[in-house]
Amino acid sequence: MRRAILIGIPFIWLLALFLIPFVIVFKISLSDLALSIPPYTPQLDLSQGWAGIRDFFSQLDFENYIFLTTDDLYWRAYLSSLKIAAVATFLTLLVGYPIAYGMARAEESWRPMLLMLVILPFWTSFLIRVYSWMGILSSEGYLNQVLLALGIISDPLTILNTNAAVYIGIVYTYLPFMILPIYATLEKMDISLLEAAEDLGCSRFSAFWLVTIPLSLPGIVAGCFLVFIPTIGEFVIPSLLGGSQTLMIGKVLWEEFFSNRDWPVASAVAVILLLILVIPIVLFQRNEQKQREAGK
Amino acid sequence: MSPQEVFAPWDDPNARPLIQFKGVTKRFGDFTAIDNVTLDIYAREFFALLGPSGCGKTTLMRMLAGFETPSEGTILLDGTDQAPIPPNQRATNMMFQSYALFPHLTVRDNIAFGLKREGKPKDEIHARVEEMLRLVQLQQFAARKPHQISGGQRQRVALARALAKAPKLLLLDEPLGALDKKLREETQFELMDIQEKTGTTFVIVTHDQEEAMTVASRVAVMDHGQLKQVATPPQIYENPNTVYVADFIGEVTIFQGTAKKADGYYEFTWAEGQPPLKCRSPLELSNGQSCFVAVRPEKVEISHVKPEDDNVLPGKIIDIGYLGNLSTYHVELGNGQIIRAQNFNTDRSTRQVFTWDDQVWVNWTVGCAVLLEQ
Ligand SMILES: Nc1ncnc2c1ncn2[C@@H]1O[C@H](COP(=O)(O)OP(=O)(O)OP(=O)(O)O)[C@@H](O)[C@H]1O
Ligand SMILES: [Mg+2]
Predict the structure, then answer these.
(1) Cβ of A243: how many Cβ atoms within 10 Å?
(2) Beta pairing partners, A205
(3) Pair B155, B177: CB distance under 8 Å
(4) CB of B94 within 8 Å of any CB in chain A?
(5) What residue of A is the nearest CA neighbor of B87?
(6) CATH number of the domain residue A176 falls in
(7) Distance (Å, rounded) from C-alpha A187 to C-alpha B274?
(8) Which residue among A255, B82, B325, B364 is the one 20 to 30 A from A159 at the CA level?
């Protein structure tokens, strides 16, 4: 009984907040656009009994999915999102690993403070922080002013409204998600392993490659997924920092819903996005599972 | 070296030591872990470090391996100062007290790790690893990861990994502590065998005196970062230089008193109303100097009738420890001091000759006790 409750609560949670909304979205994606409220048909009319239900199901079809394949905007947006997410994840790893490493090797008394600093940005709204990057990156922004003043450049750089700004925004925003899992694996690593590696003939550098990197791999994988998964559907960063050529599926989704008010097509886009995300999420879960087993 | 010739380079003034500690001190902050240690260890030695927990054994090893630098003094290996040489270029391998096995590698890859760094050909590495696996009896476990094997098996992997490279100097920090008695003895003889075959020099830390006595060519007894005595196992056992060493190695009864020079021996007064003890010693003691006498239990005889001997004391048995092959008797002397005596149980048919509360005599011959200044 206790067990049933323990399993039941998250189960109901998932059912209410994930499965039911998903079924609704999926249903809309099979509907047709209509100029009414809600902006799609058919609607389930239970007052007509069985006939109503049959009628309802007979009107559902995969038209919107077929439409997605006919317009190459959609698959280009999916591909471009995947590419941007992959590159951004890699960049975040490049920035995050040294930070995590430095934190894990810092004096023990310093570590709680350093952890605090990593989490500190979450205290202000994400939106405000992305807005402030507009102020930094624009052609009259702080970055250009400093570079001009130092004489490093003679003409202001165009960074805002390019993909570069999107990458900066993503790396900045998702950095803590990369640092924390890597830090966790590095921090619990036994330093005597490095001594053993050196004792057996490794240089400092090869000991890092052969021992530190493999041992922090679960953290690296976890961090990469934690950045990659939300970045694919990212909407705020590309729409605030990106330019017209920045193509991401999150932006397309937004436009379908709110500019075109084509809920059925927008829902189809969302369902496909979810299917794409299932793969990395499952892989992520596998990684976590493996880590838990190894930790036992 | 002919078999008659004893291996004792430490007695040869011309022998060149492999390792030399010269006035080595190691401080952590204001804590002195190693206190002005001067020590020579010779090639092909099996050198054992003994001492209570925290006395600095591991620290001494880590300085040899290159993980700690001495605060003062120098360490020479083969006559060259080791200070500028990083751990990965030292001709030493260390077996860590914590094993430090790589958790992401299999047993086989752990053992092969050092060999691969040398860039040896694959089949040579493979052959060597198989040899090591056989040695530590872990062939069936070669494909497992360290977290999938038992503590004793892990210890054996660590040992095999350190042995694999056949280094000039092997540092073993409590290599056999987690093994059961039988496997421990087997491995001890295996180590001695390896040492014989390869001529490797071993420095080994152990908590087990019997182990130190079995395997070591010489034993160093440490306390609070200092070397109390460095000598062969028989010397350490029969001629300890301090009460500390006598007490640390094996069982012993210590008498405290004063010495008076007599004809060829010292007369040792230790308690009022008790007969003085006779003791021979090379020490030069002044009359009335306070000192100690140490007697090992197996040197003390016990009997119901007063024997004719130099050191005879009456007492009462207050405790008997039966150890199978022998029994230890705790005998309370007239002044309350307790002395330990040991008897072999050679005849299993006779009933216990001595029992609790028996009035007995203990005695030992003049040469059997050791006089100690401190
Ligand atoms: N890195 C360090 N910082 C501060 N103190 C240390 C450090 N390493 C060792 N010590 C101290 O030096 C002393 C000697 O330590 P060491 O590890 O050499 O002891 P040990 O003889 O090997 O003991 P055990 O038999 O328990 O392994 C201990 O008191 C220990 O607390
Ligand atoms: Mg130790």
Answers:
(1) 14
(2) none
(3) yes
(4) yes
(5) A199
(6) 1.10.3720.10
(7) 65
(8) A255
B322 lines ligand 1 (CB under 6 A): no
For residue B1, the model assigns a pLDDT of 46
CA nearest neighbour of A252 among A26, A62, A72: A72
Contacts of residue B296, Cβ cutoff 8 Å, sequence gap at least 6: B237, B250, B251, B252, B368
pLDDT digits (tens, 9 = 90+) for A51-91: 888 888 888 888 899 988 888 889 999 999 999 999 999 99
Weakest-pLDDT range from A98-102, A192-196, B159-163, B352-356: B352-356
- Number of folded domains that form chain A: 1
Assess if residue A266 is contained within a domain.
yes
How far is B281 from B265, CA to CA, in rounded Å?
7
Interface probe for B, chosen from A199, A206, A220, A291 (most Cβ of B below 10 Å), is: A199
SS3 call for B291: strand
Residue A58 lies in a domain: no
Query: Which domains are seen in chain B, by residue range?
Result: 9-91+167-243 (3.40.50.300), 251-372 (2.40.50.140)
* φ/ψ of residue A223, rounded to 5: -60, -45
Pairing of strands B359-364, B311-322: antiparallel
Cis, peptide link before residue A42, omega less than 30° from 0: yes
B110-114 CB contacts, 8 Å cutoff, 24+ apart: B110/B146, B110/B157, B110/B161, B111/B157, B111/B160, B111/B161, B111/B164, B112/B164, B113/A197, B113/A200, B113/A210, B113/B161, B114/A200, B114/A201, B114/B161, B114/B164, B114/B165
Q: Tell me if A97 is assigned to some domain.
A: yes
Can you tell me which residue has the tokens 């182990």? B211
- Please give the model's pTM, rounded to 2 decimal places: 0.81
Token pair in block for residue B98 = 């914590």
Q: Which residues contact B336 (CB under 8 A, 6 or more apart)?
A: none
